[in-house]
Fold this protein.
Amino acid sequence: MGYNFKEIEKKWQDKWYQEGTFNAKNDFTMKKWFGLIEFPYPSGQGLHVGHPRSYTALDIIARKRRMQGYNVLFPIGFDAFGLPAENYAIKNHIHPKITTEKNINHFREQLKSIGFSFDWSREINTTDPEYYKWTQWIFIQLYKHGLAYKATMPINFCTGCKVGLANEEVVNGVCERCGSPVVQKEKSQWMLRITKYAQRLIDDLDDVDFLDKIKAQQKNWIGRSEGAEVTFKIADSDETLTVYTTRPDTLFGATYMVVAPEHHIIEKLSDKITNMDEIEEYKHQASLKSDFERSELNKEKTGCEIKGIKAINPLTNKEIPIWISDYVLITYGTGSIMAVPGHDTRDHEFAKKFNLPIVQVIKPADETIKCDVDKEAFTDVETGVLINSGFLNDLSVVEAKKKVINYLEDNHIGKKQVNYKLRDWVFSRQRYWGEPIPMVYCEKCGWVPIPEEELPLKLPEVEDYEPSENGESPLARHEEWVNTICPHCGGKARRETDTMPQWAGSSWYYLRYMDAHNDKALASKEALEYWSPVDWYNGGMEHTTLHLLYSRFWHKFLYDIGVVPTKEPYQKRTSHGMILGSNGEKMSKSKGNVVNPDDIVSEFGADSFRVYEMFMGPFDQTAPWSMESIRGCSKFLDRVWNLQSLLVDGEEYSPKFEKAMHRAIKKVSSDIEEMKFNTAVSTFMTLVNDFYKEKSINKAEFKTFLQLLNPFAPHMTEELWQTVLGGTEMLAYMKWPTYDEAKTIADEITLPIQFNGKLKATITISLDEDEESVKEKVHQAVEDKLENKMIVKEIYVKNKIYNIVVK
RNA sequence: GCCGAUGUGGCGGAAUUGGUAGACGCACUGGACUCAAAAUCCAGCGGGAAACCAUGUGGGUUCGAGUCCCACCAUCGGUACCA
């Protein structure tokens, strides 16, 4: 009797989704578990085989939690604003709303065909005004608390299409679509002050259970550094230059300074500068370069001395030259540096090229280590000792830092300073398909948020989605929408025409799931209290520094204003590996190695697809797709189905399988918790092989087996449970099997015997057998091999191994 | 360049975290069933005749190393001069 997966999977999916079998319960007295996967962007290509890897993993955990008695919230939704829908609309003149709806319907069907236990009653869509009403509401709160502000920031502007471009649309300095050069264009944009939360975003990582590599990546991205600000006087002038340095200890070795081309000191002192033409030319050249070019093409250092002005090193009191160079960035620190070529590799490279003086101020503590700062910068902080540094001489780097900072503070020429690499979040997009920013500009009152009771501010339905030639959003052309009245004074005002970035909707979506249809608040207090925080969030490593950090920032803000009850949104964060094409390369249309999940489901069924996705390799590592391997998983499930032909009566595990059953429960239970799904599947396979070998499985064994396998292959196991074992309740809600530790331990052990660590023989002993008796057996077993050998030592590790050191 | 992963049969990968390397699956080989094929079932499957040799390479620690330490090589991913 063959297994008709098409019919049976459909049958169970219809039942689950019509009856809402897996919907979270509104009983707030139960213990809860909230599992979250990153909601997909509903692209026109449909679901990728990578999506189900993460979804199946958390579905397995969610299904196990239900069996463990938890009230489980495992929701799904769609992150539907974004560039591809808008670009598609521009090309084909179909409103993004229409394509988005079509794509979501397709995704929903695909997801249902794989049998995920999502709570579909809470489905959300970031483009739904009832959803983005609250995205806009959060923005207004940010504005009211001074965390949203306007600033002039450069955008990528395509000189061909006359539109602003996202970084990913700029390839090698030209527009991805038309190939025209991309220039930087200044534009006033909304910014979010994430930097205010930098320290807390680092500190609170201590309280959450994120993978270490995720924590490390977030910390590195935020990039806290400790150092000092030092003020240098400009000779014959009242002006000063302030620098940030992590190495104030090397101040005696600062032989010149470098400022960013955009630095204001150039304008301020332009009357003193004697080579203004040369400088203007360098500035011009630098401004032509995009950030991309500055870094990619500029391996060789460039620069230009600012003639006519000199700075004074505050410790040596010597005059030192000031240069401009684009390796100094206006966006980090103070936009100017003190250069210590003896102890910084970039400064060294620059000094060598332009023949600037190099002074050694640190030497290795260990005299035997050679060090020639004329050839190479000496950068070892750990073991360095100060020289040529006046009052700092003979101190270690650490001591010198402390002492010099005290000196700087006492003499008011500097202070201790903490810096972060993290920058504020540019929140404006000159795009149509995003949440309108709910602000109006009034000549009299300035920027005013629209009243909260007027939310949502709906995106107007327009016909043309191309951005304007001046780089404004398409909305700017719609005067009837733009012109409005000031909520504050009632006078004439204009709406903000930029929209929010795609990150906005995904920064708080997990909160909406807790109470998805609330029209009074983003979620009720009770629901937030009960469901917060997300217990387990799985997603891709690529979202570690943007999405994950942005949503932690928003959450912390909402915590500060009393909206949410926890400091952190996610208690646990794990990540999955990418699925590559069968040739080991990233799946892409152009490489022709894309696998369509629909084809897999219709050829092998959802259960086989799920089992294969879990079996293909370690969950957190990339794995190539293999059609042969999925056939193996499908074969395994056929063997499970056919176990019914071996079924015998029995209410207890039979003696021959008792140990195996207890071990399997233990192994599968812990493997699921540790996301070692591949070895859990191999445990199932081994067990099935054993049943076939013995040509028997009793009802008790079959029941436990089906329960363990249910989270992986929910359709087939539910069917077998109800039709073969006569189950009346859903297997999905039966209590998760338990095991007895004592029954997992073997009472006989195969003991390996080694000579010098190399296996020579094995013997069978009983568990915890007395050492004398083991020794006797060992010697009996290897008697002949011991001839002509001298025993130096014997090591017995109880129940593990017996090693004889021989000569 | 820097940071982070990873490196084990023909292939995907196991290995109780320092204790029998190669579980499980794929591919392959042989057998059974069949008129035949597919499917299914059973058996074999790192190399070597053997002693032995084998976990990217070279050292080290240890009674014992895929696992720990040092140096290097390769592949993949992230990032771009962060003072």
Observations:
- The first strand of chain A starts at residue 32 and ends at 37.
- The radius of gyration of chain A is 34 Å.
- DSSP finds 25 helices and 34 strands in chain A.
